[in-house]
Amino acid sequence: MAAPLLLLLLLLLAPLGRGADSGVAAARPEPADVVLRAELVRTLDPARPTAGFVAWRGDRIVAVGDRGDAASWIGAGTRLVEAPAGAVALPGFIDAHAHLFGLGHSLREVDLAGTASFTEVIARTVQRAAATTKDRWIRGHGWDQNDWPVQEFPHHAELSAALPDHPVLLQRVDGHAALVNARALALAGIDRSTLAPAGGEIVRDARGEPTGVLIDRAVDLVATRLPEPAPAEEREALALALAECARHGVTALHDAGIGGPRLALLEEEARAGRLTLRIHAMLDGDDAALLDQRLAAGPTLDPGGFLDVRAIKVYADGALGSRGAWLLDDYADRRGHRGLPLIDADELTALARRALAGGFQLCTHAIGDAANRMVLDADPADVARFAALGVIASVQFCHATSDAPWVPARLGGARTAATAYPWRHLLAAGARLCNGTDAPVEPLSPLRNLAAGITRRNPDQDVAAHANVVAAPFLPEQCLTAAEALQASTVAAAHAAFREADLGQLARGMRADVILLSNDPVTVTPETWRAIRVLATWSGGRQVHGSR
Ligand SMILES: [Zn+2]
To answer: Taking a C-beta distance cutoff of 8 angstroms, is the pair 284, 258 a contact?
Structure first.
């Protein structure tokens, strides 16, 4: 599954001035556009942590207060929303690490999650093919042979017979294997004589022919043949991703790596007022022309406050699962191997200086302890240096629980206990911790992610047939409190995007990015998160999810 990701934000500009104080003005205020009244409003504002209503006009919150004071904000044109019993209002969730277009494209694929047989996989794929021009690729994801009557990897023969004209690539649920059909094998030039690349496997049948199942790096043999998405497909992906965020109560997102064409599309959508999500766009650090152009132009934020461009994403190393993460000591399950840096220290320093000079933030993917040390340029007290240097640890709660089954094999027991996914150590050392999902690597759900951070138990463990799920808490001493986990998913994530003055809290002067949940998320567990519904989402005062 995904790797533990410590994304380090090297540059912190001085915090912006805070908006006006929260609270209710004394007399006869101008009425609000919307007044949302709930038994409990969790504001995340330390000056007033809970309230009974929140009111906004346009895209700004004008009042947060006791239930009884809501009336003074209600006029003839005001929409009054009375939350049902038990529902809780909060600032919208901020996903501090995700891939918006990747999420959108994954939503365009055939959803194979929960298929009860290989026959059902084929049926769903055939259905999609019926609406797809011949020769166009059909992609899908989510199958798991553990859910089928015969719990073995499938063979492409039946799929190829049903779909002779479309190349097909169907990813397994864990993203580490894929099934392709004969057409895709032919396009990729894979036959019985093809050797698997290092780190990959071409599964073969008794006759020595490829079965269509490709593992890890062997998937690249086919994946690299996929055409770039067409502009219309990019637009469709964006629309799907925005809707998915609204549905999950995510009102802001840090996009961890965006190239020129996608940035142009986002800017066009921002100008047209069509973005319903605040996007902190990290520029793709490998795109030299894009960096030149943007660093020269300086940081930008559109007038609606939806798209900011002031960050650069680079990779210090690879992933732990594939042993690409750069470690200080050998991998416990491959002696003599420590992974590799993907950038050298001088190059990283030069880019950091350039970013700083241009007013940009440097966001570094760093998973292994050696990679983190290169970024922090220090030693095992590297954890303490996050606070000392003002570096933000942008982590993914759900990666810890997803990776739990195999991390001790990679690192060994003692190193795992001392160093892996150390959320509580980071907080205790005074670091700022913000949280994301890395969607579509993990589901976008903030509630699933909170459950992982608070309990360190896999939030999918109530789902049958997940062979890789470990039920016990993973390093339970690193569990966060619900308050800490919520903070990392709202206030701290806003701060990490230089948006603490207008996002992440419900307080007067803040943007009206507000969600209403059916239950209090501080009670969330792996068993209960699915039952909590996002009843409504407002982005900049505009309702973008839920019934009216
Ligand atoms: Zn990512």
So the answer is: yes
Half-sphere exposure of 414 (CA within 13 A, CB side): 2
DSSP letters for 81-101 = EEPPTT-EEEEPEEEEEE-HH
- Token pair of 548, please? 């009216």
Ligand 1 centre to CA of 365 (Å) is 8
Distance from the alpha carbon of residue 99 to the mean position of ligand 1, in angstroms: 6
Q: Are residues 165 and 171 in contact, defined by beta-carbon separation less than 8 angstroms? A: no
Taking the chain (548 residues) in runs of 10, the rounded mean pLDDT of each run is 39 35 59 98 98 98 97 97 98 98 95 93 96 93 88 95 97 88 97 91 96 92 93 96 98 97 98 98 96 96 97 91 90 93 90 92 93 76 78 94 89 93 93 95 95 93 55 92 97 97 98 98 92 98 95
Cα(403) to centroid(ligand 1), Å:
15
In 3D space, the residue among 410, 401, 501, 404 whose CA is nearest the CA of residue 460 turns out to be: 401
Partner residues linked to 178 by β-bridges: 171, 214
**Which residues sit with Cβ closer than 5 angstroms to ligand 1, an ion?**
256, 438
Closest CA to 97 of 307, 250, 248, 302: 250
Question: How far does the centroid of ligand 1 lie from the alpha carbon of residue 439, in Å?
Answer: 7
Residue 270 Cα to ligand 1 midpoint, Å, equals 23
8 A C-beta contact, residue 326 and residue 340: yes
CB 140 within 8 A of CB 115: no
Tokens in use for 338?
């420590």
Task: Report how far ligand 1's centroid is from the alpha carbon of 548 (Å).
Answer: 35
Is 320 within 8 Å of 416 (Cβ atoms)? no
H/E stretch holding 36? strand 34-42
Bond prior to 440 in cis (omega within 30° of 0): yes
Q: Which of 74, 11, 7 is nearest to 37 (CA)?
A: 74
Burial of 117 from C-beta contacts in 10 A (0-12 / 13-18 / 19+) = middle
Q: Are the CB atoms for 73 and 63 separated by under 8 Å?
A: yes
Please give the C-alpha separations between residue 390 and each of 47, 293, 426, in angstroms, as whole numbers: 24, 28, 12
412 conformational bin, left if phi > 0, alpha if psi -120 to 50, beta if neither: left
d(CA 184, CA 250): 36
Q: Which tokens hold the place of 91? A: 């600032």
Looking at residue 9, its pLDDT comes to 40
What is the structure's pLDDT at 27?
62
Global pTM? 0.88
Task: Give the pLDDT score at 460.
Answer: 82
The label of the residue with tokens 């990392």 reads: 488
Q: Which of 116, 23, 10 is nearest to 72 (CA)?
A: 23
Distance 367 CA to ligand 1 centre (A): 11
